[in-house]
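As the next step, I selected for study a record pairing a protein sequence with its backbone structure tokens, which the following lines show:
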Amino acid sequence: MVMASNVSGGSGSSAQGRGGPQVLCYHNEIAPLREVKHSCMNLGRKFYGCGYWPRSCGFFKWAEEVNEVCDLQLMILEKENTYLNLSMTNIYWKRR
């Protein structure tokens, strides 16, 4: 599960369009992809936050962290697929 952290009050943001992974906040609703607009340190950095901001559930996750998790999940799925294919091949050859 993703850890919660609060969005800094000094960093404004704007919601981004669709296209990335669907991330759910603690309300179990899609957290929109946003971009920091009013912070020198993180200007332009993308993040997912609760759609109910400022009365949010506290969900916050940097987009690059979500992308890393998605990449790892894809690697796991590919390895599971390879394992299943090898298992099926093994079963096939045992029955011959």
